[in-house]
Each structure stands twice: as structure tokens, then as C-alpha cells.
Amino acid sequence: MYFLTDEERKQLSKGYLPRSRQMEIAEELRGWNWHQPPLAPVYDQRLALYEVANSYCSTNRDLYLRRIDGIKTRPNAAMIRGKIFHDILVRVLVRAKRLIYEKGVGNFQEILKQLNAPLSLGFLSEYQDQLQEAEFSELKKKAVTLAAFENARVAARVQEILVKQPYIAEDSLAALAIPVVVEQKLDGTFFGLSANLSADAYTFSEPMVLDLKFGRPQKFHQLTTTGYALVMEAIYEYPINLGCLVYAEFKGDRLVVKKDIHVIDEELRQWFIEERDEKMRMVYEEMDPGFGQCYDSCPYNLQCHG
Ligand code: SF4
Known about the structure:
With 306 residues, the chain is of the alpha+beta class. It folds into two domains: 8-71 and 180-286, no CATH class; 74-178, no CATH class. Helix content is 47%, strand content 13%. Helix 8 links the parallel strand 3 and strand 4 (242-251). It is globular, with a radius of gyration of 21 Å. The two termini are 40 Å apart. The structure holds iron/sulfur cluster. Iron/sulfur cluster is lined by residues 57, 59, 61-62, 291-292, 294-295, 298, 300-301, 304. Residues 57, 59, 61-62, 291-292, 294-295, 298, 300-301, 304 line the site of iron/sulfur cluster.
């Protein structure tokens, strides 16, 4: 899911990368300048990165209800599905890395055999009570499809590297075949964000933040990758110019994956900072923003509309 296809790699190397390297970004908008305006937070507040980046509620009343009224809601079915699918990808990739280190390159046949074996999905039962029976059974089918897809991709990549590199050892094989850190933990306190941020994936073959989405594409999704890029620049002090949103969708039994690779330019950086400041102000001043265009599955429907 996080691996680029040959076409995407070509687009990256001939399009996005040269463009991002030529791009000029004002120094004040680089994450390492977190201690001065406009990056330094004006309000003494902490928000989760998703609270800054998401705008599913057009007025952000969901944030107001959560932060000021302290209302916690049950996750809706889409949220549960998203959490499970993310978890499956983490499990597949971590299992693959573990197998490479545990078995060793000398036992590559065993690595490939186990990589091709289905992932254990016993953990899904934890969610059974939170979904209706039909929803849960549909979810299980999709979970199997997703795990099988990712397993096959990882196994093919391991095989590809082994064919090309006869003297490779475990550490290098793991890094080349699976060049991503999943659930990268980051401290976002420099920007008034949570101390425990978790980026879906970070690829170190080219500094690029990846975020996986299972819903409809939205323009504001690029704020998530932008937020993580700013935080990483603050922590590691090197530029992160690219983000990639991975959209996965089920069409019947088939999984369809599309990627939105984007340059994290000045406009996105400014937009992220403006959203952060506006939302922090709302929380700081305890201003109820009122209703906007509501959507059916909003978990706050009951609180807003009774
Ligand atoms: S019900 Fe409407 S106003 Fe309330 S949080 Fe949801 S989208 Fe926002």
C-alpha cells in the first residue's frame, strides 16, 4: 500500500522530486523555525494533529464539543473500519521485518513461505460488539483481502531484492524491501500539538510522509501530511518536501489504491498554521462556532441535533 508502483516511481523521480528540489520555501515556514512566528503557537493550547487537519465538520463544532464540553463519542463504523485497516497494514509490515531478522537471509525460503501465509486476524473479534453483524462480516472479508494484498506485495519485494543482491544481509534486506517506518511516533509540542503524534508511515528512501485514507478524498487531507512534515523538520532539522495520501477503496471484492503525491509548498504550510491558530483560538476563547453542513455519520449528531 505504501510502496510506489513503477509508474509512480517514475512520476516521483521525473516530476515531483525535481519540482520539490527547485521549490523555494520561506525560511519562516520551515519546521526548524518552530520557535518564531508564524510557526510558534500564539495560544497555550495543545491539539491533536487530526484536530488541526480534519474539517469533516464545516464549522469545527466537533472540536468545540470534545474540548470545551468534554463530550466523548463512540466511533462510527467508518472510523472503526479505518482503524482496523491501518492496524492490518502495520501488522503485515512489522511481521515481514520480524521474519527477515528472525529467520535470516539463509532461510529465505522460510521467510517467503511465512510471508505468503495469511495474517492471523483474531484481533478483529475485539470489534465485533461495536458493529452490526452484517457490517462485521463484510469487514472481515475486506480485512482478508487487504492483508493478502499487502502480504503479496511484501513477498514480491523481498524476492526481487534477493534476486538482485546475492550477498545481502538481514538489515539491508529489511531496509530495501520495506523502506518505511510505520506509526512513526513524533513529539509535536513545538507547534502546540500533542506530544504523542503518530504518522502512518514515513519512507526514508526519499523523505516523504505517507497517510492512508479509506474515505473519499478531501482537499484538507493534505494538511495531515503537511503537519507531520513540519513536525519532522522541527525534530530532525532537514527539509521534508513531499507528502503522499494513499486512498484505498473496495469495489466489490477488489481493492483499488490511488495515490496523491504532493509537494508540501508554502501554501499548504500557511494553511496548516492558519487552521491551527483558528482552532486554538476557538478552544481558548470557548466560542461555540454553531452548526454548518452536517453529514449523516457524524458521531456528534445526537449532541447537535438531539
Ligand atoms: S452534527 Fe454537524 S455541527 Fe455537529 S459536529 Fe457534526 S457536522 Fe458539526
